[in-house]
């Protein structure tokens, strides 16, 4: 970390955060609210850039795993754990769409690419990527370091449940019996998959409705506005609003 980071953290008056245990990361005595960028995902979006309303696309894959390759992606998408879990999925006979890391060059995973259990999908424009999400029965999120996994909010908007790493920094608040399941590593991923795919659990899933009931741009904006008003006061917010409008003019 940069030596000035501590001074910056101390100077910040209030925090928006995504963590289970903010006391471990944030300075004491400062106002904070559990609010992430992904909370503002609009499940009603429908334009040329992309559609987050389910389109009735036929399911082709059991899971989607996003990792575009390279050191940063392997770290952020937790490929060390994901790789072992992908083996389990393939051994269970599942079909996993991988976007877009080339697993055919991985000695341990290449046989599963050849068998058709791991299907490498090329990188897409965002509007087409959303169609890939909807073509999957669930999204597999192995990440731990991810602060706010946007793909999870996008999947839920498209009514696709999520299997998420229990130790993820941000996004954990999205997972419940209506949206998906947690797993830890390759030792328990089989049990998590079986739970997610069981008819009784499937009957209770409604990820899109849950996300719309709890998050999205309107509800998240209300949370943010209420937090800022409590912390800074209405007069200061109005002053900032006027300054912004003056700057635009």
From TrEMBL:
The source's superkingdom equals: Eukaryota
Can you name this protein? Answer: Glycosyl transferase family 1 domain-containing protein
Protein species of origin: Tetraselmis chuii
């Amino acid at each position: 970390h940069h030596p000035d980071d501590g001074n910056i953290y101390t100077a910040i008056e209030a925090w928006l955060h995504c963590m289970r245990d903010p006391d471990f990361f944030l300075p004491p005595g400062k106002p904070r609210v559990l609010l992430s960028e992904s909370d503002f995902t609009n499940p009603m979006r429908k334009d040329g850039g992309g559609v987050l309303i389910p389109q009735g696309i036929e399911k082709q894959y059991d899971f989607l795993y996003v990792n575009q390759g390279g050191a940063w992606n392997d770290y952020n998408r937790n490929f060390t754990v994901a790789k072992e879990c992908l083996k389990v999925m393939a051994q269970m006979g599942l079909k996993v769409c991988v976007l877009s890391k080339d697993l055919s060059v991985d000695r341990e995973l290449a046989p599963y690419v050849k068998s058709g259990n791991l299907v490498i999908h090329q990188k897409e424009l965002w509007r087409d990527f959303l169609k890939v999400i909807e073509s999957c029965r669930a999204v597999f999120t192995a990440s731990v370091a991810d602060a706010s996994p946007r793909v999870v909010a996008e999947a839920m908007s498209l009514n696709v449940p999520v299997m998420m790493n229990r130790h993820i920094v941000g996004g954990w608040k999205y997972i419940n019996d209506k949206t998906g399941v947690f797993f830890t590593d390759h030792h328990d991923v089989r049990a998590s998959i079986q739970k997610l795919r069981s008819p009784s659990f499937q009957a209770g899933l409604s990820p899109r409705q849950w996300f719309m009931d709890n998050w999205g741009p309107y509800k998240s904006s209300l949370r943010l506005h209420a937090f800022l008003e409590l912390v800074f006061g209405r007069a200061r917010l109005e002053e900032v609003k006027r300054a912004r409008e003056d700057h635009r003019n």
